[in-house]
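To: structure desk
From: M.T.
Subject: fold request, one chain
Message: Could you run this one when you get a chance? Sequence is below, nothing fancy, just the single chain.
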Amino acid sequence: MRRLGIAVVGTGFWGQRVAERLNELPDTELKAVCDINPERVQQFSKKFGVEGYADSRKLFRRSDVEAVTICTWSTNLATEAARALKAGKHVLVEKPMASTVQQAKTIVNLARRKGRILMVGFVERFNPGVQRIMSAVDKGEVGTLVSATARRVSKWPERIGDVGVVKDTAIHDIDIMRHLFAEDPTAVYAKAGNLKHARFEDYAQIMLTFRGGKTAFIEANWLTPYKIRSLIATGSEAIMSLNYLTQEITIETAGQTITPRYEWEEPLKLELQHFASCVLNNEEPLVTGVDGLKALLIAEAALKSASKCTVVKFE
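Reply: Done. Structure tokens follow.
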């Protein structure tokens, strides 16, 4: 069986986890790691027994590296993704994929011109709990989907240094809502601000409206004493609630409340397996560059709505 030669650019908290999982998968062969921190490069190249680079352009010249995962700070994601695509590599770029919508459009178009796979790291799409709720909605088991509510709250993550809570965390739920309703929102209204952190917004409440009066509510902050990751899908026949962390689902109907038991699976590992399979079999990924672009566009609209205290409508 052919294995995919792959490298990791950015070996911070998330990049380390990605490298560890790639090293465990049967379909991938970790070839190299790259980081601007020389000490970190040395540490992780030694740990994984691969070559380390401080300059990604040298790494991208390697013919045995077919694909790369970009795990840098948000402000560097688009630059590294563009370099990789220009070098003919398939790319899995972490969210929010770029600093601006225009940067995101550039790398989406570049991937098209180069004929390379561009996947965006919305890891929650690969949470088995999300996939079970999606399946139930698709089969009509909840009746007509009326609304959905997401909460993604926790303490300030020290790793964050270049984006606020909307582009770092709420963007996951923006993508999930597009996925759950199977359409793009028609408008967004948001409130956001900073209570404890001067540089970026550390809380946001976002309402997305969809056709037919359907709505999605997203709460995100870096202020609460502990982590909550939850999703509630409300339908005309049932309400389904998900704890993202435990993957536990509760289904409430008029006559009963049940909590089915499922084996926990790691979303990151499932995401990386999917990316490798798409590259090896030349298939379109579940999360495309266009999905990343649209989520970023909605995130920026939410920030605009919050700053101007107005509804932002989409064409």
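Reply (cont.): The chain has two domains: 4-116, 125-266+297-313. Let me know if you need anything else for the meeting.
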